[in-house]
Specification:
Layout: E1 3-4, H1 20-25, H2 39-42, H3 56-66, H4 68-89, H5 100-112, E2 119-126, H6 137-151, E3 157-161, E4 178-185, H7 192-209, E5 213-219, H8 220-254, H9 257-281, H10 289-319, H11 324-351, H12 359-390, H13 413-424, H14 426-441, H15 461-472, E6 480-486, H16 492-503, E7 516-520, E8 525-530, H17 539-555, E9 563-568, H18 570-604, H19 609-633, H20 638-641, H21 653-681, H22 686-696, H23 698-715, H24 721-753, H25 775-780, E10 796-797
Antiparallel strand pairs: 1-10, 2-4, 2-5, 3-4, 6-8, 6-9, 7-8
């Protein structure tokens, strides 16, 4: 028969389902309170002994507090070992391959050891009107000087072709004002970025001797070298900018230097250790340089967020009169559990990238899952240990200007007033917000996926040189590259097939001539270069690629036994990326949403709240992707953000943005819903719980959102267009989550659902103990048939 018990006080760890008396039975009395005798020695013992009935996160926090020196020492040892291992073992990395048939061709070339040396071009261009290469001695002397300078670098340049030589007729532009000296970078391909620096220096010396003509170099190796240097500079700038900005914002939140520094130190250690680990794992996993940038973005965001949630709850409980151990345990049972659920949801979302089968996404998934996992582990273990170690020192070193800051924030009257209005008229407020987000998401329907010809700022000299070369020597796009492997490639059947392939080219057809075929890897492979119609990315080029793949090659090489082939090249890479994104996005979306639903259902013991959270996440992600489309595809604000639109959105950004935002949005949903459920479990009605939960969590959620938006906005200022896209999309989505979703859509949806928010069928009572209630309370919550008894349920247990 049911036995009544008194409701749990608002600041008790009501989520554990234990009464205050049970909780206090394991506490060593009041001497552990700050300011009392023995506080220093009792900070860790306030948590002991740990009852087995308590949640795992609470037991972990108490164990970490009691063994604080060992935990802090262990983390320092882990950080040092990861850094040393990254420096010693991170020199090699497994290559990343493009998806589809283009990736198959790249793998074949790599396995055969076939490496095409990067091609470079030196532009000699007239500066004055009337200058022509054929009749201007200065231009011709400059070309001869470039050739002589390159020939003096036998280990840096190879296969030099001059406009002055027998093969130079095609290296003079139609108007005669430009000429090219072409060559290939000699030496090992892996060191081409370093080797080409000698060539660039030699060309710069020629330019200094002939100021009357433009002499400039550009090509694959020099562009890569500039891009890698710029990426490293961006990476350092992001690190140097994000840390001070985050610290300043945290100072505004806490008003004390030590408390503000704790989240920054935790987030920084999480990022450094993860990047070091990825350097080691890169020997076996496809982890590229872009993964490090994403790890920095995400690691700083979640590391600071998790620390902020935990610290603010612990300080709030101490301000309410709890001892240090009590405050630590309540913070672990509430914010700590929210961190676990949020982290699990983020990692589940990121794991959806594995379903794409794309190396770039696989590397990013490994990196981001590791950084979130390390951040969760740090919040659960390192934070309690550090707080136990420094005790009340966390509130010292206060900033004079911010000395008025309260340890515990009061409920926000502004947010309470807004939510109260929404709860009164949920259909009107919620409907207007939904329509606004749908309008923002509308441009996604016209999103085009593609890559810029050069993902570098237009003001770089190498990019300007490439543009000048393209204008002076307009030509067809890079040809399709057919990699042919198999046995007896020199036999009669293979030769007939190659001849038939060459015969398919025509001056006006989809495949343009001439088709060149060369032997590679000691005769174990053939490489056929097939020029395609179009500009490389339009419908003509795509149609030509499909004709080559689906008709021409099966009718020629496909009839030779023991021979296989795959087509790569810039057109093939772009097409395969788009095809994979279109095919795999629905699968990733469905899998991520389904797994997140089960986690949230177990967390909140509710069938409808997970559906609401997933729906609102999709709305905010769609609106963010719509804004990215408007800005980067359609070219709005390109002057302000410092980029030039190429009429598409980068291939990897939309899908990665979806999975990342889907997980990050759960940060706020889980934290806000946990506060709402805490009040509802203490006896409040659903509308009152919604108003109190959102108003009570307004300070910490707003602070976390401001910090996360600031960190993400930094990446919108960096040089690479795809990183700008990611930064703008993430910052805008977080802003929406912290304002429109939190202030309007969540309360509107919960007000419309009423007490049905907490409905869970009896047959799902077996769900594991992720709930924000303890086992006893979870068992007592059966599906209710009448809302009238909802408020009395919190005081009922079954025997």
């Amino acid at each position: 028969m049911p036995i009544l018990r008194s409701p749990v006080p608002p600041h008790a760890d009501s989520e554990t389902g234990q009464q205050g008396g049970e909780r206090g039975a394991g506490v060593e009395g009041s001497p552990g309170a700050e300011g009392s005798p023995g506080a220093e020695g009792n900070r860790g013992r306030d948590c002991s002994p740990v009852l087995k009935r308590r949640p795992v996160v609470e037991r972990i926090a108490c164990w970490s507090a009691r063994h604080r020196k060992a935990v802090v020492g262990g983390w320092l040892l882990f950080l040092g070992a990861a850094f040393v291992a990254g420096q010693l073992l991170g020199a090699q990395s497994r290559p990343q391959y493009d998806p589809g048939q283009a990736g198959q061709a790249e793998r074949a070339l790599h396995q055969l050891g076939v490496v095409t040396p990067p091609a470079e071009s030196v532009l000699i261009q007239a500066r004055r009107a009337g200058q022509r290469f054929s009749g201007d001695p200065q231009m011709r002397r400059a070309a001869a000087a470039v050739v002589a300078a390159l020939e003096r670098l036998p280990r840096a340049a190879d296969d030099i072709v001059s406009p002055l030589g027998p093969r130079g007729a095609s290296l003079v532009s139609g108007d005669g004002r430009s000429a090219l000296v072409t060559f290939r970078v000699a030496g090992p391909h892996v060191s081409a970025d370093t080797t080409v620096a000698k060539d660039v220096a030699a060309v710069a010396a020629v330019q200094a001797r002939y100021p009357g003509v433009l002499v400039a170099e550009a090509g694959g190796a020099s562009t890569d070298a500039v891009g890698n240097a710029l990426m490293g500079s961006d990476f350092r700038r992001a690190e140097m900018t994000s840390v001070p900005i985050t610290l300043i914002l945290l100072l505004a939140v806490f008003g004390a230097l030590i408390a503000a520094g704790i989240p920054v130190v935790l987030a920084g250690s999480v990022v450094v250790s993860t990047i070091s680990l990825l350097a080691v794992l890169g020997r076996w996993l496809p982890i590229g340089s872009a993964t490090s940038q994403v790890v920095l973005i995400l690691g700083m965001a979640v590391g600071v967020d998790y620390s902020l949630f935990y610290l603010r709850r612990e300080r709030e409980e101490r301000a309410a009169g709890k001892s240090f151990g009590e405050a630590l345990r309540i913070a672990a049972a509430t914010s700590g559990r929210a961190i676990v659920i949020s982290g699990v949801t983020v990692m589940i979302s990121l794991a959806g990238l594995f379903l794409t089968g794309v190396d770039l996404f696989t590397g990013m998934a490994f990196g981001t899952i590791i950084v979130v996992g390390v951040a969760v582990a740090g919040a659960l273990t390192l934070l309690p240990a550090v707080l136990s170690l420094i005790g009340e020192w966390a509130d010292r070193c206060r900033i004079p200007v911010l000395g008025w800051r309260r340890t515990a924030a009061r409920p926000s009257r502004l947010w309470a007033g807004l939510v109260r209005r929404v709860v009164r008229r949920p259909a009107i407020w919620g409907g207007a917000a939904v329509l606004a987000l749908l309008a923002l998401a509308a441009p996604v329907a016209g999103m085009r996926i593609g890559s810029p010809p050069i993902d570098l700022p237009d003001n770089l000299p190498v990019v300007q040189t490439l543009d000048r070369i393209s204008a002076a020597f307009p030509g067809r796009p890079a040809p399709a590259e057919v990699v042919i492997t198999g046995r007896d490639l020199g036999g009669p059947a293979a030769r007939r097939a190659v001849t038939a392939l060459e015969a398919t080219a025509s001056a006006r057809g989809p495949l343009r001539g001439p088709i060149s075929v060369t032997s590679a890897a000691g005769g174990r492979a053939l490489i056929a270069l097939v020029p395609l119609a179009g500009n490389g990315s339009n419908t003509d080029s795509t149609a030509a690629l499909l004709r080559l793949r689906d008709q021409v090659l099966p009718a020629t090489l496909g009839r030779v036994g023991g021979v296989s082939y795959a087509v790569t090249g810039s057109t093939a890479v772009g097409y395969d990326w788009s095809a994979v994104i279109r095919a795999r996005t629905p699968l990733v979306l469905a899998a991520v949403a389904a797994l997140a639903f089960f986690v949230l259902m177990a967390a909140f013991s509710s069938l409808l709240l997970p559906l609401v959270s997933i729906g609102l996440n999709l709305l905010s992600v769609g609106a963010a992707c719509g804004l990215v489309t408007l800005i980067f595809q359609d070219g709005h604000l390109q002057g302000l953000l410092g980029f030039t639109s190429y009429g598409a959105v980068s291939q990897w950004v939309p899908l990665f943005t979806f999975v990342l935002l889907f997980g990050l949005s759960m940060d706020y949903h889980v934290f806000i819903l946990s506060r709402i459920r805490e009040r509802w479990s203490a006896g409040a009605s659903t509308p009152d719980a919604v108003i109190g939960g959102i108003a009570g969590s307004a300070g910490v959620v707003t602070s976390a959102a401001v910090i996360m938006v600031a960190v993400f906005s930094i990446f919108a200022t960096l040089s690479f267009v795809d990183v700008k896209m990611l930064g703008v999309g993430l910052a805008f989505a977080v802003l929406l989550d912290a304002t429109v979703v939190r202030g309007i859509l969540v309360p509107a949806a919960m007000a419309l659902l009423g007490e049905r928010c907490w409905y869970l069928p009896r047959r799902l009572s077996w769900l594991p103990g992720l709930s924000f209630e303890g086992a006893a309370a979870a068992r007592s919550r059966r599906p209710r048939r009448a809302p009238a008894v909802a408020r009395s349920r919190v005081g009922v247990t079954e025997t």
